[in-house]
Structures are given as structure tokens and as C-alpha cells.
């Protein structure tokens, strides 16, 4: 059984959080290697679409994917993944997969993909504690608290992880707002500042505190 099939057959147990937060982001050898890369990319992209659908179904079914709220904890910089719920770690892995699939399709190098994955996870940790929220400030919703009134999509769209991650990255052609890939120096500026260039938050310094936790979550997602 594939990892995705196994995880779909045994989704994370329902968390006990209360409230409306739900979660619902040369030569034969070279030719063979290139074929393997294409196959892996297609597999990851198919997996990202299925993962997005699964998260959306979980949200529609009322499963709360988040329990621990990192933003309420005193020492964000020293948090470990063990302090997150199974649902939050699950969402982190799927958001990382969606990000990889989007950027592989865009032709980015592996180092750039890893950097973007970290920025995406840092942003979701800060904005939603890795929960696909159905509420927020003003009309903000979803993993990244994207606002329909600001052109990120309608309410249903911004709560679709596939849509939301692609919009954040700038690979969603239906969203005109600049995404990460539209930031000229995103590869060289600090991770915090790269996230802020997309989010335009009133608290521009808050993303960087999640770097260590995002790194750990990314490492877990690579070995699952």
C-alpha cells in the first residue's frame, strides 16, 4: 500500500480542540534518470491533488485538524513537532507535498523548492497554526488567512489547500496577487521577509520565529 493510500485509510484521529477551527496548503542512463524524475514529479503532483481533496473532505466532515496552538505558546523558537497535534503534522506534510509538486512543475531547483517549502510552513504556522480556519480577521480564512476581498479567491477557494498554496507561491494563474515567486529576491532575503512580502502582515517580524519548527516539520515530511 502506498503512503498516501495508507494515510487515507488511517487518517489522524480526531483532535479534541474546541471551537470552529477546522481543517478542513547523456545516454541510456541519463535518459532513464530523466524519466524517473518526470515520473516522480507526476506522482507527487497526483498526490498533492489527492491530499488537497482529502484535507477538504476532512474539513467538510467536521474533523478538527489542529489542537495545539503554537501562537499561544511562550517560546515559539524552541517548539518541537511533538508539541503539535497529529492533525497539524499531517497538514504540514501535505502542504509541503503540494508546494513541491507546484514548484517542480514550474521547473525550480531542489534547493529553491526546499527554501520555499520552509517559507510556506512558517507562514501557515504564524497565520493559522497549521489549521484550515473558517474564520479570521475581517474576511481572512484558510491556512494563510487569505482574504477574498483582497483578490485571493472566494471563500471556498481560499480554504482549498491546493488553491491556497499555489496562490501563496504565485503559481495559481487565477490569482493576480503577487506570490513568492514574484518577489525578486526571495532566494536571498531572510525567510521572514520573503513571507512578509507575500502576506503584507501588520506584524511583519513574526514569521521568522517559526523557522526551526518549520525545518523540523519539513524533515519529517521528507522521510514519511
Keywords:
transmembrane; single chain; transmembrane helix; 8 helices; 224 residues; disordered N terminus; mainly alpha
Plain-language structure description:
With about 220 residues, this protein is an all-alpha fold. The protein is built from eight helices and no strands. Helix 3 (about 85-105) packs across helix 6 (about 160-170) and helix 3 crosses helix 8. The two termini are about 15 Å apart. Residues about 1-10, about 15-25, about 30-35 and about 55-70 have low confidence and may be disordered. Keywords: Membrane, Transmembrane, Transmembrane helix. This is Secreted protein. It comes from Brevibacterium salitolerans.
Give me the number of helical elements.
Answer: 8
Helix content: 40-55%
Low-confidence spans: pLDDT under 50, at least 5 residues?
Answer: 1-11, 13-26, 28-33, 56-68
Overall mean pLDDT stands at 79
Element-level helix/strand string: HHHHHHHH
Counting helices, strands and paired strands, the structural category is mainly alpha
